[in-house]
Amino acid sequence: MAISKADVGCSPNLRHVPLSYNSAESDRSASRLIFALFPEWEHAEGKLEFVRFKDGITNTLLKAVKRRPGYSEEQIDEEAVLLRAYGNGTEVLIDRDRETISHSLLSQRNLAPPLLARFQNGLLYRFIRGRVCTPEDLTREDVWRGIARRLGQWHARLPIVFESGEPNSLSACKPTLSKAAINGITPGRGTPNLWTVMQKWILALPATTDAEMTRRNVLQKELQRTVAELGNTPGLGKDGLVYGHCDLLSGNVIIHPQPSTSPRTTPQSTTVSFIDYEYATPCPAAFDLANHFAEWGGLECDYSMLPTRSVRRAFLHEYLESYKLHTTKASPPHAAARLESGEKEAAIPTGEEQEQAGTGNKALEQRLFDEVDRFRGIPGLYWGVWALIQKTISQIDFDYGSYAEVRLGEYWAWKEREREEADERNRRDKGQILKEAGVINGDGDVSERERRWATE
């Protein structure tokens, strides 16, 4: 079921610290923020230290620790705070108010660490003990099964949160872009959703030259075609939507420490948490899954790392078992309390769908497998457009332009493969054109990514 942002709101007790983080004086500005949150830390015994926990390609993330004398590392971590500072100009891409609401929702369901405060250009929240996942870790069976279980829990338990009519971030930044222009990509449906986010980004693309205008028009047509073909995918949840993470790369997965009572790692023993919820939005489950699979290749887009068909099937089986478990877990009294408070959980599947998701029944698994397959090219379009915007606004040392071409190349390769499979045309008839576009290699073969995706 769906609820509005007004129905959910943020915690009324969430503190706002009227200070900013400045990368040019990182430790100094970070210390001011921490001492504003915990004044007693400034004069208490023990040094305040900062660890650059993740220097991603959107934000800066620091871990603040107070090294109290006599404390173990575990005790120090229990007090530790994460400071996440937003990247330059990213309000064009991300609704920061919505991000705070997402974090609050997750925290209420024990799916995210407690949110401690907002500051002028970021958030402060509790640290999650564990190790940041790497692209190589994603290929480990115990890790990907842990991710599958956690993602099934996410999609089952989180309510769909839609806007309630207030202006959004992009409208505030670019007054010429109306909400109607953004939401018109999915008329009559709750917003935001995956498609309206992509529409917002395309409308924000630079169009100061003929080449930029042409590219924006091409991408707009591709989005419209994609929504027409995939916008009504049955999927899971209400109206085929779940509340997705939409940025489940390895760096946003934390592998929990192995309990001392479980000295041996097994496929079922590893548990994980997800961090960074700035892109979380209602989306088809198939997109969130396909996007995660795409991230197995890392920022280097190493397609040899992508999960094969057999691994994807096993992942989806684990995911659906968790999804079923968490859609049926709440007891009636808890459900009644949620309804009385105006809060509604994500839509529980029909009895038929729950039965299909059970062990031994492959019908739903096959349907979702096919849907993920159909969505495999959409992350390339999504992140390709994102990178084109980042190229114009980001101050982070990363080649967004090249990354955009690589990701968009994945989309074009998928589109060509879809077309080829639909009408049984031979790609080699277009050899030189496709070779120049990077869709096929010099021998006229299927692109490396498509070939790996089709491997059993």
Would you kindly provide a brief summary of this structure?
The chain is an alpha+beta fold and 456 residues long. The protein has helices at residues 5-8, 26-37, 73-79, 96-108, 135-138, 141-157, 169-173, 179-183, 194-204, 210-230, 285-294, 309-327, 332-340, 351-356, 363-375, 378-393, 400-423, 431-437, 448-454; strands spanning 2-4, 15-17, 47-55, 60-67, 81-85, 115-119, 122-126, 131-132, 160-162, 242-244, 253-255, 272-274, 281-283.
Describe this structure as you would to a colleague.
By secondary structure, this protein is of the alpha+beta class. The protein is about 45% helix and about 10% strand. The protein has helices spanning about 5-10, 25-35, 75-80, 95-110, 135-140, 140-155, 170-175, 180-185, 195-205, 210-230, 285-295, 310-325, 330-340, 350-355, 365-375, 380-395, 400-425, 430-435, 450-455; strands at about 1-5, 15, 45-55, 60-65, 80-85, 115-120, 120-125, 130, 160, 240-245, 255, 270-275, 280-285. The strands form four sheets. A six-stranded mixed beta sheet has the order 2-6-7-5-4-3, with helices on both faces. Strands 8-11-12 form a three-stranded antiparallel beta sheet, with helices on one face. Strand 3 and strand 4 (about 60-65) form a beta hairpin. Helix 9 runs antiparallel to helix 10 (about 210-230). The protein is globular.
